[in-house]
Design goal:
The chain is of the alpha+beta class. It is built from 14 helices and 21 strands. The protein folds into two domains: about 75-190, 2-Layer Sandwich (Uridine Diphospho-n-acetylenolpyruvylglucosamine Reductase, domain 3); about 190-390, FAD-linked oxidases, C-terminal domain (Vanillyl-alcohol Oxidase, Chain A, domain 3), CATH 3.40.462.
């Protein structure tokens, strides 16, 4: 039988530490059969079920007062065909571990985000993405999903047999069933060359579209009170990986990108009136660098500084204008925010509730350091994004409801049909799902 947690209720917290809940029980199934038993027993007892991954969402997506299922044990590569690139993995597989296993098979994910601590199920369920004008989000790499439904039965979704249900489940927000396994379409392993350069922000925004098209993977970071942007360009190269030395990696990834950011953020929290000056200092400290390595190592960054985040996807052509408006709002209101704004791009896809559904997208992410006021800033950003028909990242803070979201998704009704078919009794729901999807 699945192990019940020895944790006291209320001990579950997300990575940022600002979301917590008190599940009536926490179950940790060790395989699909135990997962089915846990779900069926909870449903029979009249409890709802939420499946928690690594807790990297900033929303209440995994929270529950009833049964929480932790899926860490459902991990690892279950089946792989290096010839076709199809790899079946357990839902609880953490992306960092998956990347290592794929590398041993001579394979890789074609695109990834900049954090690799999420589970594969959590990453696809919230619409997590990387950057690349010709590349779609992580869920678009899914060829099949194995769901456990409320009665404990298994349902395998594939494009050939259940295309509409698969389109819904690829970004399912945990509302269609418990994911037990995912089949991914992988590509042969490849190397990326990453070049980081600080540049004048207005020049970068003026040429945003051209830069996005010119690089396999393009993104930028900019502090609202600075006038520069750190531009990250990653491109495929026919070269073997040349990893940085351990000390060089430590100095850049830990000392500069984490310790220095933590120190400056702490100073900004203590002295909010100094934030503009600290931002300009941080902009000057951002230096150029380059590296060539295995793709997943180039994609992922070591994030140790805790923060909360909002991210919106808008039609790509509106990205620079929307970002400028956010910066103008921060400066006009002298809002105390030190963390940078991040911009990325993604190609349109067909997942029913993907923020990039049927449109090429510019993603704009805003952050606030832990313990600092964030709501007025995020509310102002959301108002700006609303004017472009913005769609929120499902795992990051937003204030939308089902009523405000439905008009933004052409396939909203398709998703609701899938929800009615797969979970008619609404076992897989919580306050967040009820708010953003409806009852």
């Amino acid at each position: 039988m699945a192990r019940r947690s020895s944790q006291a209720p209320g001990e579950w917290r997300n990575w940022a530490g600002d979301q917590s809940c008190r599940p009536a029980e926490i179950a940790r199934p060790s395989n699909r059969e135990e997962l089915a038993q846990v779900v069926a027993a909870a449903a029979a007892a009249g409890r709802t079920v939420s499946v928690a991954g690594s807790g990297h969402s900033f929303t209440e997506a995994a929270m529950t007062d009833d049964t929480m299922v932790r899926i860490e044990a459902l991990a690892g590569v279950l089946d792989a065909d290096p010839g076709s690139g199809l790899v079946r993995v357990g839902a609880g597989t953490v992306l960092a571990d998956l990347n290592e296993e794929l590398s041993r098979l001579g394979l890789a994910m074609e695109n990834l985000g900049d954090i690799d601590r999420q589970t594969i199920a959590g990453a696809i369920s919230t619409g997590t993405h990387g950057t690349g004008a010709r590349l779609r989000n992580i869920s678009a790499q899914v060829e099949g999903i194995e769901l456990v439904l409320a009665d404990g039965s298994s349902f395998h979704l594939a494009a050939a047999t259940h295309p509409e249900l698969l389109r819904a489940a690829r970004v399912g927000i945990g509302a269609l069933g418990a994911i037990a396994a995912v089949t991914l379409r992988c590509v042969p392993a490849f190397s990326l060359r990453r070049v980081d350069t600080p540049q004048p922000r207005e020049e970068v925004l003026d040429s945003f579209q051209e830069r996005a098209d010119a690089n396999d993977h393009f993104e930028l970071f900019t502090f609202p009170y600075a006038d520069s942007a750190l531009v990250l360009e990653r491109n495929r190269v026919e070269e073997p990986p040349r990893p940085r030395g351990r000390m060089a990696a430590y100095l850049n990834d830990v000392v500069l990108e984490n310790w220095a950011l933590e120190a400056l953020s702490t100073a900004g929290k203590a002295f909010p009136d100094r934030i503009p000056a600290l931002s300009r200092l941080a902009g000057r400290l951002a230096s150029g660098s380059s590296t060539t390595d295995r793709s997943d190592r180039v994609f992922a960054n070591d994030r140790r500084v805790r923060f909360t985040e909002m991210e919106y996807g808008v039609p790509r052509e509106h990205g620079p204008e929307a970002a400028r408006r956010v910066i103008e709002w921060v400066r006009a209101n002298r809002y105390p925010v030190f963390f940078p704004i991040e911009m990325r791009v993604a190609a349109g896809d067909d997942a029913s509730l993907s923020p990039s559904h049927e449109r090429d997208t510019a993603y704009i992410a805003v952050h606030q350091y832990r313990g600092m006021e964030w709501r007025p800033y995020f509310e102002a950003v959301e108002e700006i994004m609303d004017s472009y028909g913005g769609r929120p990242h499902w795992g990051k803070r937003h204030f939308q409801t089902a009523a405000t979201l439905a008009p933004r998704y052409p396939a909203w009704t398709e998703f609701q049909r899938a929800r009615d078919e797969l979970d008619p009794g609404r076992v897989f729901t919580n306050a967040y799902a009820a708010r953003v999807l409806g009852p």
